[in-house]
Specification:
Blueprint lengths: L6 H16 L25 H10 L5 H14 L10 E5 L2 E4 L11 E2 L4 E2 L2 E2 L7 E3 L4 E4 L11 E2 L4 E2 L2 E2 L8 E3 L4 E4 L10 E2 L4 E2 L2 E2 L7 E5 L2 E4 L10 E2 L3 E3 L2 E3 L6 E3 L4 E4 L10 E2 L5 E2 L2 E2 L7 E5 L2 E5 L5 E6 L3 E3 L2 E3 L3 E5 L4 E2 L5 H15 L6 E3 L8 H4 L7 E3 L4 E3 L2 H4 L29 E3 L15 H4 L6 E2 L1 E3 L13 E2 L10 E2 L2 E4 L1
Parallel strand pairs: 31-34
Antiparallel strand pairs: 1-2, 2-3, 4-5, 6-7, 7-8, 9-10, 11-12, 12-13, 14-15, 16-17, 17-18, 19-20, 21-22, 22-23, 24-25, 26-27, 27-28, 29-30, 31-41, 32-40, 33-41, 34-35, 36-38, 37-39
Length: about 500
Amino acid sequence: MRFVHRPGLAFVLIAFVAVAACSRSPLGAGKPDASADGAGRAGTTGTDAGGKAGHAGAAGLTGAAGGNAGGAGGAAGSSGPCPPGQTICTGPTTAIACLPSGVWATDNTFCTYGCVNGLCHQCTPGDKICNTATTMQRCAADGLQWEPPVLCDNGCENGTCAEHCLPGFAECVDDSDVRTCGADGIWGVSVNCKFGCSNRACRACEPSTSVCLTAKSSRTCQDDGTWGTAVTCATACENGICTDCQQDAGMCVDDKSFRGCNANGTWDPPAPCESGICFGDSCRECKPGSTRCVDDDMLETCSSDGQFDEETACPNACQAGACASNPKKVFVTSTTYKGGELGGTAGADAKCQARATAAGLTGTFRAWLSQLDSSPGGNFPRDGGPYLLVNGGVVANNWTGLTSGTLRHAINITELGTAAPTATVAGCTTPIVWTDTTGDGMVADLGLTCGEWTDSSGFQAWWGTSSSQSDWTQGACMGFGTSAATGCGALAPIYCFEQ
């Protein structure tokens, strides 16, 4: 064999080795590791310097790992500080790879199943899975791959070859789950039972519990978890149990008392209705169709639901639960009297009666006059209406209208059908009438009663006016006279009302 001397080639090789020994890649740059492990192992064509450059390129590996990586880099010669594609473990669950550029990646790779010998596990050694319905695979001992599939004669379930079973057969897996064998003889997936598993099947119900099928029937769950035959209740079914009555139901014991069904399904003792009325199945406010007066001229009717909610205005008066007409005559006396000589309200009543009798009017009449212990609001009946003048004029429909503050017609006609007397006093030009009574029929001022209508010497008096519909009883000419003649000694008529 002949060797040919080629000086040019030798120069190139020497230069290449020198460059390879002295140059540093960007990631491999750094201070050479002085540790024993960091010295590296020489590659087949690399050098110790290549190992040092490889260690620096691993960016944080231990000295030994750096040396090994450097050795591999040296073996690669001019490929750089690490061989592209190589991986090494940087921890129990992390690895790092050499990039195609020959430098180590800057980020670690997380190994889900751990890292061994520079490789990430693909599975946990010993784990088993069903890769199909009829085959099973096991993870190899090195965790790097799954072993070849194993055929399961009766199918695979939860990573295990299933046992053989009879198609359609069922069994309790435990107290709460059941499974059924499929047509292929393989057990199906377990199913949870709501009421537990018994006798190879899910219970349909909880043993000993009962339910109402209808308002009057029930059934009970048997010991094997199946429903028993329906039972008809004599009265009602409540909470699955036949009872004397249905909860919250009620009934009238008679037309005035009621009893209800309690939560136990039994009747409570009878109790009287507060309203005193019971019909249908409960206490009611009123009996449908019944009526009552809610005001002197307002009638209220009970509706079909037992409530007063229909109101009717009476044209005249409401009496004893019905609209009625109870006309009462009213007049102002044709004669006049001194306030101090009326003889109290009793004396005034007698004067009214005398004037009515003289005019041929029937009935009992009293004066519209007040004092300390007597007034129309306390003495007059409230069932009158309409109040009429002797000529037929309507003064008010009823008591409510009479005391409303405004009359339909002034009381300006006497018992004889003539115009009211034109009695006046100084400072009061309207025709006055003795009253000392408010619009609602009560005493107006105890100091203006002329000594309870027995003292004509007093100056103080209170009149109404017969020409007014609003000031007919109160405030027309209230005040103080300048003398007895302009006070309690003045002459004026009185109002008279049929009772």
